[in-house]
Amino acid sequence: MAVRGAVASRSGLRSALPLLAPAYLWLTVAIFLPLSAMVFFSFMTDLPLSGKPWAFTLGNYAAFFSQGLYLTLLLASLRLGLEVTLWCVVIGYPAAYVLAKVLRGRSREAIFLLVILPFWSNGLVRIFSWAMVLREGGILDTALNAVLPFRINIDLMYSYPAVIIGLVHSYVPYMVLTCYLTLQAIDDSLIEAGRSLGASRLQVLKRVIIPLSMPGLVAGAALIFVPVVGSFMEPRILGGRTGTFYGTVIEDQFVAVFNWPLGAALSFILLAVVLVILAVASPVLRRAA
Amino acid sequence: MAGVQVSDVSRIFGAHKALDDVTIDFADGGFYALLGPSGSGKTTLLRQIAGFDFPDSGRISIGGESVERVPVEKRRIGMVFQNYALFPNMSVADNVAFGLSVRGEAKAVIATEVQRALDLVQLAKLGVRRPHQLSGGQRQRVALARAIVTKPRVLLLDEPLGALDKALRVDMQIELKRIQREIGITTIFVTHDQEEALTMSDRIGILRDGRLVQEGPPEEIYDRPKSEFAATFLGDANIFRGDTTGNGIRLPDGTAIAAGAGATLAAGTKASCAVRPERIRIGTDTGAADGDANMLKGQVSKRIFAGNNSTYFVERAGQTLKVIVQNTGADRLAEGQDVVLRWSPESTVLIAAT
Fold first, then answer.
1. Which residue of A285, B8, B228, B250 lies most exposed, with the fewest beta carbons within 10 A?
2. What integer pLDDT is reported at residue B329 of this predicted model?
3. Domains of chain B, earliest start first
4. Is B87 in the A-facing interface, judged by CB distances under 8 Å?
């Protein structure tokens, strides 16, 4: 496929140009220009607004290394990303398997719709709905106490689990979709062949299905891990005081403290760290896939 | 190695009877073809024997052991799929090793057995390749090696040659037969290709609408079909319909056709006679000839020359009869010519009307 792609690009680049141009023009205007501005800001002492004096500095980047807090928060965010990704695999992969290999026709469409639904609901609405469910005396608390004979106190609001729940809910559709696509492409006769050779369902899953669906798992994990590490909305609303993460600190720099240069520098450090992680992980993941 | 017994097996999908009370006995070491048009239930029957699906009623046993509720992974069968179903994430050797490896065999044992299986299918050097680097015929061989390396009790093949082109298919037919003889495994294979069934198998079972129409050696089914369907599905046949006379039938126009083979039927009932096109002699001589009790007059409507033989289509009383004549150098007959068809009663099979 790579060979065919190379041949096509050599012979058809000229004719493909009109098709590529809008996308690249848009990317240039919408991403490259603002991003370059941010790179520029990250090396300034202050924003060049209302004639305030400014100079070039490496101080914003130095701040990350001189204050242990930023590193601690970055590690916490990376851990959050890892945990949310893992939960998304645990929840999303079996769902994708059932959608791709067990359900057929109408029931598949219906379940698919339920999986996609978080995509279509507004992020803030989604998070505040969780707030209503998770708080003390909220929906979950009331429902459990109505059913259970003894009294329990569910107060997940403003806690680390609440942040995890909110993020997993937001991002699990990515995992379901990417895994569904790769699982659906696996021929059912491969599963039957495995079983005819004496493999149990679990052995077929381990040796055939999971290796073949690895590209979907990796794609899903990358789609989830990267934004979760930089997330700020779920941690802030559902995490409260415990919800201070790297992403929320960056957000603070932009909207509260109004220290754009520091916020920009912290963002680029995050970008660099994420890129390094993906680069280190990619050979391992590619071999697994 | 073991024989397979299928007794009174039925399988119903909703309102559709995919298998209707099928009983068939596959003897140890035999090569069986399950032949039928699509939707006849042949693949469904194979899947019941494999254990991918369970019958609604009836019994299946492999080597005398009742297996109708045993899942596929515990039946010790080998199966070759129509699309080969090789694991794309594994090398050829790992594909072949799969069955031994899930069983927990020692690495050294696996390596020896895999090499032996690859030798058997003449792919000894291709163990390191990936399935996508192989040709269709090679994939077929890998699938076969993978299915037999575990020493299964029975080998099941689902239209194994369907995806190959004609020349390769003939090669693989010979190859498959050689390997089957060499290891002496009971083999059941599903096909819709009558030629494949005739040339490869020791016995053929013909299925139609979920029922076993006829079962027996290829020669027997070809020479003594028990139904119009068997006669026309396995090879070509001219079918005459009329009333039984005791040793043949009388056509609606009064012509008698003598039959020397087939069912014994009470006179007066509806019946048919089947005659293979190559058993009929065609000529212009109207005189009586001994031995050929059956004679019909007709007119050649079409001739198709195929090199080693010619097929004549002869119109007679609103029916088109087919006659195949070997190319012996004799004069060919022209289209539109009046001809006489003759054949012996021994070539005529009496079949009860269905």
1. B8
2. 82
3. 4-223 (3.40.50.300), 236-352 (2.40.50.100)
4. yes
Structure confidence at residue A7 as a pLDDT band (50, 70, 90): very low
A203 contact residues in B (CB cutoff 8 A) = 102
Among candidate residues B96, B44, B99, B49, the one with its CA nearest the CA of residue B72: B49
CA distance B251 to B261: 18
CA angle B95, B96, B100 (to 5 degrees): 105
Tell me: pLDDT of A215 over 60: yes
Q: What is the mean pLDDT of residues B269-277?
A: 92
Report the 3 state secondary structure along B241-294: EEEECCCEEECCCCCEEECCEECCCCCCCEEEEEECHHHCEEECCCCCCCCCCE
User: Which range, of A110-119, A173-182, B29-38, B138-147, averages the lowest pLDDT?
Assistant: A110-119
- Tens of pLDDT, residues B300-326: 999 999 999 999 999 998 899 999 999
Model confidence at A150, pLDDT cuts 50, 70, 90, reads confident
Q: Phi first, then psi: what are they for B173, rounded to 5°?
A: -60, -45
Which domains, ranges and CATH numbers included, belong to chain A? 15-57 (no CATH), 67-288 (1.10.3720.10)
* Residue A198 near chain B (CB below 8 Å): yes
Query: For B155, which residue in chain A has the nearest alpha carbon?
Result: A196
A266 CA to chain B: closest CA distance, Å? 41
ipTM given for this complex = 0.84
Per residue in B79-131, pLDDT tens? 999 999 999 999 999 999 999 999 999 999 999 999 999 999 889 999 999 99
For the ranges A81-90, A190-199, B120-129, the lowest mean pLDDT is seen at B120-129
B70 touching A (Cβ < 8 Å): no
By DSSP bridging, strand B4-13 and strand B77-80 are unpaired
Cα B202 off chain centre by = 10
Under an 8 A CB cutoff, do B102 and A189 touch?
A: no
Query: In DSSP terms, which residues pair with B62 in a beta bridge?
Result: B4, B65
Structure tokens at A200: 């149990």
Report the chain B residue with the minimal C-alpha distance to residue A197.
B99
How distant, in Å, are the alpha carbons of A17, A63, A126, A137, B35 from that of B58? 66, 79, 55, 59, 21
Q: For residue B85, give the nearest of A193, A203, A211 by CB distance.
A: A193
B160 touches chain A (CB under 8 A): no
Q: Which of B67, B81, B98 to mutate to test the interface with A (most CBs of A within 10 A)?
A: B98
| DSSP secondary structure of A28-61 | IIIIIHHHHHHHHHHTBSS---TT----B-SHHH
The full length of chain A comes to 289
